[in-house]
Write a structure and sequence with these properties.
This protein is globular. The protein folds into 2 domains: 3-157 and 321-353, no CATH class; 160-317, Rossmann fold (3-Layer(aba) Sandwich), CATH 3.40.50. Strands 1-2-3-4-5 form a 5-stranded parallel beta sheet, covered by helices on one side. Strands 9-6-10-11-12 form a 5-stranded parallel beta sheet, sandwiched between helices. The chain has a two-stranded antiparallel ribbon with strand order 7-8. Helix content is 30%, strand content 13%. The relative contact order is 0.12. By secondary structure, it is α/β, with parallel strands linked by helices.
Length: 358
């Protein structure tokens, strides 16, 4: 398998890196994958030999001055400009109608490009992208308009360099004296935005029911020492926000804290290689009132087995976009899944045949 990376003008990507948040926030897989592909042994400089074409457009690097969060309303227009450019100077987009072209859409509801599900579904995936392959963090087990396209679900981005200072000693030898942990947005009176309840009310329910429970360490704002809190925790709560997925799922695995996923119908990345049921817990949103009992039962029965599975290094590696490419890391699994898409139609060279740094 070979991938051609378009050399787009810098206003589509590199210029945005002046803001350090661009390459480090939860949507930054669009930056990491581009960087890794540039030095990948699967990259080709000869587009006629390529199986896939990658468009490096950093659409989530524009931050709202009011909220500080990425603003993605411009994304369809920006990506369409990139497509118009490459299709005007090279034949490959028009030749395949974009079916062998890859985009990254690591936003709440993927290539629907809106953080609110109602609006995301109403907008849908832009028509010009509907023949292409979308790399997205969003995923649900059943039909959803925002994944009604050829897609690969990838992990949300967590910076490997930000994790490394905390990984010695390794997670399995850390003293864990926090039973259940959550730090983040947890509204006492959830905001009602266009008729939609934040987190479907789940985070508010957790705060109201367990805010004074000594088993639970709940904080409504992030602060310095967050990584150390993860390393001190046995269970890490990963409730949905506006979208079902959360970078907390990756952070929990990396720091050896059992992810407690509270997001009905969520699909999890790389389930073909990660046995999520052996390294995490899934709790129904309706079962939040029973959450303490559920966690106490697990702690008394099979916690040791879950932790043993969770602490395997290959599980952490599979969820991190390492630079350069490492065997078994998040980009490696992405390339493996891409190779399977072409393997049925013609002879393809998969990542297993490529020597990568372990």
């Amino acid at each position: 398998m070979q991938i051609y990376v378009y050399d787009l003008p810098t206003q589509f990507n590199e210029n945005w890196l002046v803001d350090k948040r661009c390459s480090n926030h939860l949507f930054a897989a669009e930056v990491a994958i581009h960087r890794i592909l540039l030095s990948s042994p699967l990259r080709t400089l000869k587009p006629d030999e390529a199986d896939f074409f990658f468009l490096p457009v950093y659409v989530s690097c524009k931050f709202s001055p009011k909220t500080g969060f990425p603003s993605i309303g411009h994304a369809p227009r920006t990506i369409h400009s990139a497509v118009s450019l490459v299709s005007s100077v090279m034949p490959y987009w028009n030749r395949s109608k974009g079916s062998d072209h890859i985009f990254v859409a690591t936003h709440d509801f993927g290539a629907c490009f809106h953080s609110m599900e109602h609006f995301a579904v109403a907008h849908g995936i832009p028509e010009f992208m509907q023949n292409s392959i979308i790399l997205q963090t969003f995923g649900e087990r059943t039909w959803h308009k925002c994944q009604e396209v050829e897609n690969i679900q990838i992990p949300p981005y967590v910076s490997p360099s930000a994790m490394s200072p905390y990984m010695l000693p390794p997670p399995q030898v850390r003293k864990r004296n926090i039973f259940a942990f959550f730090r983040g947005k947890m509204e006492i009176h959830p905001k009602n935005y266009s008729g939609h309840l934040y987190s479907r009310g789940v985070r508010t329910a957790i705060y109201h029911r367990y805010g004074r429970n000594k088993l639970f360490y709940l904080r409504r704002q992030r602060a310095e020492g967050y990584q150390e809190e993860l390393l001190r925790s046995i269970f890490c709560l990963c409730p949905l926000g506006w979208a079902p997925w959360s970078p907390r799922i990756v952070e929990s695995v990396v720091f050896g804290c059992v992810p407690v996923i509270i997001a009905d119908n969520i699909a999890l990345p790389y389930s073909h290689v990660l046995n999520w049921s052996s390294i995490s817990l899934t709790v129904r949103e309706a079962d939040v009132p029973r959450l303490a009992k559920i966690l106490l039962h697990v702690a008394a029965t099979n916690l040791t087995a879950i932790q043993k599975n969770l602490w395997r290094a290959e599980n952490r590696r599979a969820l991190l976009f390492l630079e350069p490419l490492h065997t078994g890391d998040a980009t490696w699994h992405l390339l493996d899944l891409l190779s399977r898409k072409i393997g049925r139609s013609h002879d393809a060279r998969s990542p297993q045949a490529v020597t990568t740094k372990k």
